[in-house]
Amino acid sequence: MTLTVPPTQLPPAPAVGRRGRPGRISTARRQEALTGYAFTAPTIVGFLVFVLGPLVAAIYLSLTKYNILTPPKFIGIDNYVRMFRDERLAQTYGNTVLYVGAAVVLINGFGLLFAVLINQRLPKALTYVFRSAYFFPYLVALVYVSIIWQALFQKDTGILNYYLTALGGEKIDWLNSSEFAKVSVIIVDTWRNAGFAMLIFVAALQEVPKDMVEAARMDGANEWQIFCRIVMPMISQATFFNITMTIIGAFQIYESIIVLTRGGPGDASRSVVMYIAEVAFNKFDMGYASAIAVTLFLIIMLVTLAQFRLRKSWVNNE
């Protein structure tokens, strides 16, 4: 038996066409997609022009002999082989590794210390004052900070040597001594960037559960045990972030050295980035400078990847 439905009872067919519903949905989705592309276009273009483009160009130039005046000439890996014979490059890499190690320890150490002090039970207004005072150096351009510290480091007129001699010590040639030139760079780098690390640590400390700390105190734990067993694991994500950013920034240290010591005396305080700039823009050896830049990029990338691999062993994700 076949059931037939009168034509008058059939549902109306959906409207199709320019003004039909399917057409309106398609147009809305297309407009939404175009809007999304428009919002992301500046970021995508900026990445292609200022990040990916220069990186690809540097890799290509690192395989060439190029001095700006003549077209690049392909020479293979000769620039990379040349780096193993460059004693100045070894010296600058040694200086840079020292800056990285000092930055990780001092910037994060002082940042954590300031954060713990600020996180104490102080009046809110006083907390804002200390937080602003510690963070303010980070807001000042590094060139200006370095100029101020250059005046403080002067051997005969600097305020540091004034207090050293007042306490019975001898004057130190901070900027022209191979022994203290790197120390002056480390002092300026720590003084400027510790405030940023402090701000991250303060935000993390404020998220530590108070009831957990009070329970530990009631169980007889002292402040040091609470800090090591409870607080540090709870702020491990902030610690990981600060260490990662500190390492990346220290590998690229440049401005403060230019202003304070100009890399001297000799190459005693010169960093890898400063050496790249010298080879590229003083000697116009763009191929060799690009090869050094590529190796620095690879080192930073490998160190960062190693940090993320080791992250699971000590960072608390809860």
Question: Which features does this protein show?
Answer:
two-stranded antiparallel ribbon, 13 helices, mainly alpha
* Widest β-sheet, arrangement of strands: 1-2
CATH hierarchy, class of the largest domain: Mainly Alpha
CATH-level-4 superfamily name of the largest domain: MetI-like
Number of helices: 13
Summarize the structure.
The protein is an all-alpha fold. It has helices at residues 21-61, 78-83, 87-118, 124-139, 142-152, 159-166, 181-205, 210-218, 223-234, 236-251, 255-260, 272-281, 286-314; strands at 64-65, 73-74. Helices cover 69% and strands 1% of the residues.
What would you say this structure looks like, in words?
Helices cover 69% and strands 1% of the residues. Helix 1 crosses helix 13 (286-314). The chain has a two-stranded antiparallel sheet. The protein has 2 domains: 21-61; 81-314, MetI-like fold (Orthogonal Bundle). The longest helix has 41 residues, at 21-61. It is built from 13 helices and 2 strands, in the order αββαααααααααααα. The protein starts with 20 loop residues before the first helix and ends with a helix. Strand 1 (64-65) and strand 2 (73-74) form a beta hairpin. With 318 residues, the protein is mainly α.
